[in-house]
Design a protein that fits this description.
six-stranded mixed beta sheet, four-stranded antiparallel beta sheet, alpha/beta
C-alpha cells in the first residue's frame, strides 16, 4: 500500500486514481442525462475542486459554462468554521441552472454559504456534485445530488485536497495515518 509524507504527517493511499476517474465518468453520465437539452453553469469551489471540476467538465455533453469561487475555511487539518471569500462571484447566474462542484463535503458550511448566495442570486435551480461526502459529520438540510464517494470522517489529501497547501497534486487520495 502506497504511503506519502507531507510536512509532519504520514498518509496512506485510500482511493486510487483509477477508481476516482471511473466514478467521475459515472457522475458525468448521470448529469448529462439529468440535464439533457438544458444550458448549465458549473460552479467550482477552489482551491480543492479544481482537479475534479476539470475531469468532470471534460465529460459533460451539454451546453455548459464553468466559473469558480475561491472560498476557504481550513487551516492545517481542521476547519476554522469561518468562511472567507477570496475570489467572488463574476458570473451572471440569474435564472440559470447551476451545478456546484465541491471536492469534499464534511460539515457543509462552505456549501451552505454557496447555496445561500445562489438563492439570493435567483438561480432557476441548482444541484450539488461532490467527489467526497463525509455523511457522519454532514448536518445541513439540502441534499448532495451527485456523490463520488462516501468516506469516513478522516483527514484526506490528494486529487486537489491539501494539507497546509501541499498534496493537491497527488493523483490518488490518501488518508491520514494516526
Amino acid at each position: 500500500m502506497k504511503e506519502v509524507t507531507i510536512l509532519d504527517r504520514k498518509f496512506r493511499e485510500f482511493i486510487t486514481e483509477d477508481a476516482i476517474q471511473k466514478r467521475i465518468a459515472e457522475m458525468a453520465t448521470l448529469i448529462n442525462s439529468d440535464f439533457a437539452g438544458r444550458e448549465v453553469v458549473f460552479l467550482g469551489i477552489l482551491n480543492g475542486a479544481f482537479m475534479f471540476a476539470s475531469d468532470l467538465f471534460k465529460r459533460i455533453d451539454l451546453n455548459a459554462r464553468i466559473s469558480f469561487l475561491k472560498l476557504t475555511s481550513y487551516h492545517g487539518t481542521a476547519s476554522s468554521g469561518a468562511i472567507r471569500e477570496l475570489i467572488g462571484w463574476n458570473e451572471d447566474i440569474r435564472h440559470k441552472s447551476v451545478i456546484i462542484i465541491e471536492d469534499i463535503v464534511d460539515s457543509g458550511s462552505t456549501l451552505e454559504h454557496t447555496v445561500n448566495n445562489l438563492i439570493i442570486r435567483h438561480v432557476t435551480d441548482f444541484k450539488i456534485a461532490a467527489l467526497f461526502l463525509k455523511p457522519s459529520v454532514y448536518k445541513k438540510n439540502f441534499p448532495v445530488d451527485y456523490i463520488g464517494f462516501e468516506i469516513p470522517n478522516n483527514f484526506v489529501v490528494g486529487y486537489g485536497l491539501d494539507y497546509d497547501g501541499l498534496g493537491r497534486n497527488l493523483t490518488s487520495v490518501y488518508s491520514l495515518v494516526l
